Amino acid sequence: MIIDPSNVPETTGSNYPEQFKSLVAGRFKKRLGNIANLKNFGVNLVKLKPGSRSVLRHWHTKQDEFIYILEGEATLVTNAGKQILKSGMAAGFPAGEADGHHLLNLSDADVVYLEIGDRLCRCAERNRTSQDTVDYPDDDLIAVDDAGTWRFTHKDGSFYNA
Questions:
Q1: DSSP single-letter state for residue 119
Q2: What are 84-132's pLDDT values in tens digits?
Q3: How far apart are CA 44 and CA 51, in angstroms?
Q4: Is residue 31 within 8 Å of residue 5, measured between CB atoms?
Q5: Which residues are CB-neighbours of 161 under 8 A, at least 6 positions away?
Q6: Residues 6+ apart with CB under 8 A from 133
Q7: What residues does each domain of the chain span?
Q8: Taking the model in full, what pTM does it have?
């Protein structure tokens, strides 16, 4: 299937608990994998406005992630510190490695990148990435895959208010 990204709807917002949503307000996604009807992995074309971030710094227990910078200059923050990623550079984050990561746009221009990762499992026959847990080392936040929906808790296991 051929996809023209200019015809793909752009989404904003986040399913994070309310107090974290503003941190990713400058992130815009085009869900290319959904348009292509991909079943096993997702592909998003993401734009970060100046001063915004991709997500809260995090790592997955069962989901691999990969990013490829198309335009601009992003600051990758990991446990090792900060690195600049320019157009044509990529980074991968293997499942189960406790290396919290995210992108910041500290420049004065948009950053555009591809984000590729496993889809949440919503079916019994596929459990490759079901029951994934996401740890947010800088925040009092844990996300657990609950049958294909993220459930957010504090690190002590108590739920965030809706």
A1: P
A2: 999 999 999 999 999 999 999 999 999 999 999 987 654 444 444 668 8
A3: 20
A4: no
A5: 17
A6: 60, 61, 62, 142, 143, 144, 145
A7: 8-119+126-153
A8: 0.91
In CATH, what number does 8-119+126-153 get? 2.60.120.10
The residue type at 29? K
C-alpha to C-alpha distance for 59 and 2, rounded to whole angstroms = 32
For residue 101 the two structure tokens come to 């990561």
Confidence of residue 7 (pLDDT cuts 50, 70, 90): very high
Are 48 and 115 a contacting pair, CB within 8 Å?
A: no
Cα–Cα distances (Å) from 58 to 36, 49, 70, in that order, read 27, 20, 22
First to last CA, the chain: 38
Task: Decide: residue 74, CB within 10 A, 0-12 exposed, 13-18 middle, 19+ buried.
Answer: buried
| Amino acid letter for position 31 | R
Contact 58, 98 (CB under 8 A): no
Residue 46's alpha-carbon distances to 25, 100, 115, in angstroms, are 12, 19, 7
**In 3D, which of 30, 45, 42 has the Cα closest to residue 119?**
42
Residue with tokens 């997702």, as numbered in its chain: 42
* Cβ within 8 Å of residue 81, ≥6 positions away: none
